[in-house]
Every structure is written in C-alpha cells, then in structure tokens.
## 1
Amino acid sequence: MDFISHKFHGSFDSYQNLDEINFSIIPTGLKKLSFFEDDVFLGMQAMNVGLVDQLITQYEYTLLREYNEIERTPDSTMAVSALSQMWIYAVYEVLRMWRDRKFEFEKLQRNGGIKPKISSMVDDPQNLTVEIRKEQMLRFQNDAKYRERINNVWDGIEEIFRAIELLRINLAKHCAPGKDNIIPRSPGYARINDWCGAMDYQLIDKNKNYTEIDGDRYYTYLNRRDIADALRNFIIGFSD
C-alpha cells in the first residue's frame, strides 16, 4: 500500500495545546469574508463551524487523556469519531455553498445574465435571503474589487476545500474524489492521534501528483483538527 503524508497533517510541534488555541478565529474570521460577511444566514453557518470546533477539540483532548490513562481505546472514541465526521460534512457543505455561489455569479457575469436572473427571482421584500442574494449579484456585477476579493479568498482556501472534500468523499461515499472505482479498504477507519486526540482517518486518493508511485492511487492520513488548524492559518494569513 503506497502512503503519502498529507500536506495538512500535523505533527507534535504543530498542534497547539488546548489552552493556546484561539477559537474565535474561525467564527469571526470566516464571517468577515465576502459572501459570509454580507449574507447573514450563510455567515451564521460559518460561525457554527467555529463554535462546534471548540467543543469537539475539547472532546478530542479528553479522549487523548483517557486513552493515555487506561492504555486502550476508550469507549468514547466512537462518539468523538461520529462528531468529527458530522463536523467535516458541515464545513464541507458551508464551503461548497460559498464556492458554488462564486461559480454561479461568474457564469452569470460572463453571459450577461445577472439582471435577467434578478428579474426572475421572487419579489418578496420580507424574504431577506432573496434580497441579500440580489444585492450580492448586483455588487458582483458592478464592483471589481468585490470580485477580486472573492477570487483571492478562493485562491487561498481551495486547497483546504480539496482536503475537506477528500475526507468527506472517503467517509460518506467510500471512494476517492471523482473516482468511484477507487475504493478505500476501511472507510471511516481511524486511530487516535497521539498528540491532539483527533481521529486520524485513513484515506484513499487518486494519484495524479506523485510520479514515484507506480499506480493510480495512494493512501494518506488526515484528521478534523488538521482542517480546523488549516482554516485558522488561512484566516490569519488572509487578514494580514
């Protein structure tokens, strides 16, 4: 079995201790990004991702402490794994919605379809979601800096999204992203990370980048904490 270490997988010195993590970065930082910032409901979903991250991180460290104390896999491992998978699904859907909105607006912009699209939408001033969407489309059409900022966000976050996608597809669809015939040996199989307590999932991916591997697939490990840390690092770098 060919194995490649994932870029985002942490190490002993990369995982901050629980009391060192700034858990406000994800809920407040994502909320400041375009689309999240000017859509109150999408912004709420982004905040939820950050709030739940703090809870699960606490569970992960509790699991690690118990694991070290009893020197066997604790019964609580299944619950932590289940919560971790649900968080991965949630953050994937939030970022996919953001990405799809970007792609939709770009397509409408290229084809001159923003005004016709707005005209076709329901006229209901009490439906705040519809009104927000209309305002976003008009701003996307008329504000070049708005479009540039959205592109910059995607440039910075796409690699993280692909890592989340790798986790989500392996866990939910039991295959590699875009390759139904590349099937993992043990979908959902994970081990407790020795340094942070997160569940290290064994993932399969299609091989398109690693010429040293003579095959069309490889395995890697990645956990929920890796994704949360990557999001924090992106937000910090993007804010700078």
## 2
Amino acid sequence: MKFMAFSDVHADMGVAERLVKRAQKDDIELVVCAGDFTVFERQLKPMLRLFDTIGKPVILIPGNHEAPKELEKNLSSRKHIVYAHKKLIRMQGITFLGWGTDGFLRYSDDFRIIARQWRQELTKDDQKIVLITHAPPFGTVLDKLENDYVGNKDIRQAIERIKPNISISGHIHENEGKKDTIGDTLCVNPGWKGMVLTL
C-alpha cells in the first residue's frame, strides 16, 4: 500500500491545499496526519473540511496545538477522517497505533499504559504496523537539536518492543523530511511538505 503522511501544517491553508491535491492522486490509498495542523485550534474547522475532501481515509492524531476533546468534537460530521488518538485501528491490511499531544515530554506515563494495552491487543495477524505519534522517539535524527536529543524515551521503548514497520512523528520542524531507523523500524518526520510511504 502507498500512503501519504504529513505533520505540522500549522494552519497554513495553502500548504494544506497542496497536500490534499497530492493525496487525491490515484496512487495514494490513505493519508496520515501526525498532528499540529492548526495553531492552537485556529483554522480547525476549515482544515478538517479540507482534509475530508480528499475522499480517502485520513488517519489523524492531535499535536500539542490541538486539544483532543475539541478535535474529537469537531469530527462527528467528517466522513473520511479517522480519529486515532489512543487507538489501535485496523484498516486496509495495516494496523495503526495512534498517540497525539505530548510534544515536549521526555517520558509519558499515559503513553506507557496505552503501549502496554496495544502489545496485549496485537496478534500474529498484525503483520504491518504503523505507529503515529506527534513527538519523535528519543535518540534519532528526528529528535536531535544541536547537541542534544529532545524526543520521548517511552515512544522509543514502545518501538523497540512493538517493532512497527514504520513510525511517523512530527513536532521538530528542523528535522522535517528526515528518516532514521530503530532496529528494523523506519522512523520518519514527514513535516509540512509530506512524504509518500509504501508498506
């Protein structure tokens, strides 16, 4: 399957329109948004309306600029948007694990609990797994700023234990478009330009 991922559009409708146009092409089967598509919910409704026009599933999590309850409340009328925060979603042969918010935390007790639940829910049939988080995992090119790593250690631990095929994150604008690996997991920050991935 070929799908498109992006993050950190930050209420820029022009950027979002270009992403939507690319996502509508025939080769893309679904879209993943790793959060921060608004600036503290500015342009929330117009962005969701626009994403819905893609006409394909848009798997979406909140970033640190979207309040989960406010976002979920605004999704009830959106036909194609799938809210993935704190969820395990099986769709088109892929298992998506979603965790939004948490842009600045080195550790997250709540995420550890969810990751533990996911490990219990996953079966041998879940051969293709995509982890979607807003914050990047610790210790990769995705979270390196100057001489320090600023990512989340619990997300890294979840990647090491769950071993998803792909981990998608955003948040660190300076590292958009970069890729790294943790074990056999491809870790990417698609950023506002977006990235086409195959699984």
